[in-house]
Amino acid sequence: SIVLAATRDDARALNQLLQAATHTTATTAAADASNSGSAAGGESRSVGLCDGATAHVGDTIVTRHNDPTLRVKAGSRPGERVRNGDLWTITAIGEDGSIGARSLASSGTVTLPAGYVTTHVELGYACTIHRAQGVTVDTTHALITGHTSRAGLYVAATRGRSENHLYVPTDTLDIDTEPVHLSPSRSEGEPMTVLERLTTVLERDQGQRSATETLRGVLREAENPQRLHDAYTTARDALTRDYLDWLIDRSLPAAITETMRAHEDTHAALYARLTALTHHGHDTTRLLTSAIHTRDLTTTADVNTLLLQHLPHPVPNTPDAPAAARAETTTAETQTAPASRDPAAAVPDLGVLPPRHPGMDHQLADYARTAHHALTQRAATPIAPGPVSAREDAVVAAELRGNPMRQLSDAQLRRIASGHDPQRGTDATIVMAGHSALTQAEQAHTRARDDLARLTQAHTAWQDYTRAAQHADSLDNQRRDLTREITRLETERARLGLLARARRRELDTTLARLTATRGILDNQAKVAWQHAHQMKPPGQPVTSEHLAHAENHVTATAAQAATARASHTRRAQQLHREQHHRQAAAQQEIHRRNKLTPEQHAQEQRLRADLTRQKHPVRPTPALDHAPTRSTGLSPSGHGIGD
User: What is the pTM for the complete model shown?
Assistant: First the structure.
């Protein structure tokens, strides 16, 4: 679940209230445990956070800063960096103010240093509505105050899959920002009703321009090349910084990169040099690799300074650059042309975008390349502004291309808004395929459990047979021992003379007794072997190794079934959310079109039809002036196809 508020102050107040409630419950449980003799001490230490709150063991916290030096251990995503917005549970607090925390998302653990805790860690029980955009949870609890906007109300009411709770205070605490004369029949001191408060929230955005008007104004203002240039520069710098982070992390061990970050001045100078080299079109990867292998970095006090000494100064890759400078850079790059040079780099102040690499923001990169192309074309052939109608058509056409929902006809929108979305058929097919995969995984798990039960039963039967066979074999051994003893006594009796009558009578008595015992053992052995043969199971013997293999197979199929079940549930929920969002978007688009003037509506229909023809051009059917003739199997040159 998640708790939301409109402002940071409200979120901070909710965090403190929820923390107090949590610790009250924990204190009660600890008192009960203490009465039962199982209380544990050592958890009374606390630490101050950057939002002014005090955290204890068991509190939920949120990190507010990306730190590549802090890595998560164990869990489902080991080695992941600590990121802004990650939620954690405090497991330990060090004497120096550091925090041991466990991730709520991956169950991994991390140790947050005291300096990071006091500057970038807050309580995480509640957050602002703005930060919750894009989050989906089971249950949402949102505080709706006078600071909540219509868009914020929509976000707060759509974050939960199962339940969404809105808490609306009705006392008028914000007289200055919300007119008390919302209802003329209510006196100035009378509290607002829930309906009135929600109505005020919904009306708060009515004074703002619609998305269409805003976009039209922005696009008109975007005709100024400086705005596009500024946006491109910001995107280029962000992409370059991300590329250099990836390049240095890939090229150097983590211990050396930590040492480099400790020297802030030289580290900033190194990044500035690499950024300039990248922007001027040089092969930064080759230059940095060459600088790294010039000397053993483990014996250098400041790696940044060493790399700066072996990196060339940036020289623009343009025909106007001095020949000597270009030659120097070419030599530093081993006389190899940069792999990242862009033919459009000659445009002043644009620079060259960094190459693509794993983990980069591809959407930002695509935007930067599009902006780079637009600026290049604008510099080559300046576009003279056309008539107002043409510019408005361009604005509306850009809206249509950027919003798939606006490309649909009125009839298609009505079908989607009423719940008859053609996409549901495809979604149902995907859900059925997931359900089929889940059924197969569950059936495989059932077969594995049945095989284990069968092998367990067979293993028990083989154990019983083995014990019966061992008992019968023991009786055979006793009978053979008696036979040998009888043979020995008979031999001794035969050697006695006629005068040893007493000894002969003693031996006769012993032989008679042993012979009777042997007969009993013979009968017992026969019965034991018959019983053992009756107990012998069919097939090959089942060993403990067979059982262990079957148990491992059951465990593996259970994990596969659980994964398939979770994937199927997650995919079904995602499709359900997508259908809900698509239906809501269709309803919003219908509402927007109802507010258009007839001229605007006709303009959009015309441009929508043009866009449809561009996407799906109609190919004319060639007319046949004569009856089709039979192919002769010859190519246009007169040769046969097989020639």
Answer: 0.34
